[in-house]
Design goal:
By secondary structure, this protein is α/β, with parallel strands linked by helices. Helices cover 18% and strands 26% of the residues. It has helices spanning 37-47, 64-68, 88-95, 121-131, 186-190, 200-210, 230-242, and strands at residues 6-10, 31-32, 35-36, 52-57, 77-82, 107-112, 115-117, 135-141, 176-185, 215-219, 224-226, 257-259, 264-265, 270-272, 275-277, 282-283, 288-290, 293-294, 299-300, 305-307, 310-311, 316-317, 322-324, 327-328, 333-334, 339-341, 345-346, 351-352. The strands form six sheets. A seven-stranded mixed β-sheet has the order 5-4-1-6-9-8-10, with helices on both faces. Strands 12-15-18-21-24-27 form a six-stranded parallel β-sheet, covered by helices on one side. The chain has a six-stranded parallel β-sheet with strand order 13-16-19-22-25-28, with no helix packed on it. The longest helix has 13 residues, at 230-242. The radius of gyration is 21 Å and the shape is elongated. The relative contact order is 0.13. The model has no long low-confidence stretch (mean pLDDT 92).
Length: 363
């Protein structure tokens, strides 16, 4: 049995589309199902046999190490490398190469830090080894691939092209997309240029293909979700609580609700759809919360109705206020009798007076 490879986790992105969630917290550290999202990725890698992980950090890099330390609590050895200037996906991978222990032909796992997936990690590694590939890619199938890079393959699974975000029906030659998990031959990582931004999707992979390298695709259509938007992030958290998305790191039993130990939920409140109520949060009588996340120290007052939304740390939602598809930033106050819907975002520490908004939508 081959030893499990080491891994690189790309966690340097600014998470711009997730603001205000990411104003004070890097995207991988935003809680999903009660723990920072990154915890789920680390735990799944460990469950697949990975022991050594290098985190490629950049934005708010200083928050990762105080939380995870050396990784021993998760049975891992974690190292941290911070980009001083953004280097892109390929540049970030190359920037951590000095911390890798693998030999030139050994496999190295690489994961994007914003993907929630049920990928069979050992199967991807085994595919890579059995095909003697230079790079192997996790591919997944999606109904509408226009927002993604297409990756067609031949009958043996060998990648034949990389097609960036097709727009016309003629360009959509496959429903297979790059799902953000790879196995690299170590020597391929060492060949990525240093000291400048490099995109693996737009430069490294197409360049390897044109040079005749062997790029192998493995289609694994288990659970897969890009957590790049607030709507997707809230859904991913709920799916973890419900058990639809697999993770050994969910801190409690799967089900309709996850209430962490120091949270207080009134007997008459109703929590459904994979709702999570974090440490120190308070949910008052007759509140109804469905498929949502209430982060640490937040308060939801009596009779509030919250659906598909995220309430930031220390925020307060007033009595009878309705939130549907909304993100409320850390420390914000939404007064009583407001109604916000469909992508509305309340910035960190903002104060919305009682009855100020009856309907709001993201433009």
């Amino acid at each position: 049995m081959n030893q499990a490879p080491e891994a690189i986790l790309l966690v340097g992105g600014k998470g711009t589309r997730l603001r205000p969630l990411t104003v004070r917290t890097p995207k991988p550290m935003v809680p999903a199902a009660g723990v920072p999202f990154l915890t789920h990725q680390l735990a799944r890698a460990r469950a697949a046999g990975v022991e050594h992980i290098v985190l490629a950090t950049s934005y708010l890099a200083e928050v990762f190490e105080p939380y995870f330390g050396d990784g021993s609590d998760l049975g891992l050895h974690i190292e941290y490398v911070t980009e001083r200037e953004p280097l892109g996906t390929g540049g970030a991978i190359r920037n951590v190469a000095s911390r890798l222990r693998s030999g030139p032909d050994d496999p190295v796992l690489v994961f994007n830090g914003d993907i929630l997936t049920g990928l069979d990690i050992p199967a991807l590694v085994e595919t890579h080894r059995s095909c003697d590939a230079d790079v192997s890619l996790h591919l997944t199938r999606v109904d509408d691939p226009r927002a993604f890079g297409l990756v067609p393959t031949d009958g043996t699974g060998r990648v034949t092209a990389f097609l960036e975000k097709p727009q016309t029906p003629e360009e959509i030659v496959t429903d297979q997309i790059n799902a953000g998990a790879y196995v690299f031959r170590r020597s391929v990582i060492d060949a990525i240029p240093t000291g400048r931004p490099v995109s693996v999707e737009r430069e490294t992979f197409p360049g390897l293909l044109s040079d005749g390298a062997h790029l192998q695709g493995m289609v694994d259509s288990t659970y897969w979700l890009d957590l790049g938007t607030p709507h997707a992030f809230v859904r991913g958290s709920a799916d973890l609580v419900l058990g639809r998305a697999p993770s050994p790191a969910v801190p409690g039993r799967r089900g309709d609700r996850l209430v962490l130990p120091t949270a207080r939920v009134a007997p008459g409140a109703k929590l459904t759809g994979g709702t999570v109520v974090a440490e120190g949060a308070v949910v008052a009588e007759d509140a109804r919360i469905d498929g949502s996340a209430v982060l640490a120290g937040a308060v939801v007052e009596a009779g509030a109705v919250i659906c598909g939304s995220l309430v930031g740390e220390g925020a307060r939602i007033g009595a009878r206020t309705v939130l549907s598809g909304v993100v409320v930033g850390d420390g914000a106050v939404v007064g009583a009798d407001n109604e916000l819907r469909d992508g509305a975002r309340v910035w960190c520490d903002a104060v919305l007076p009682a009855g100020a908004v009856r309907f709001s939508s993201d433009q």
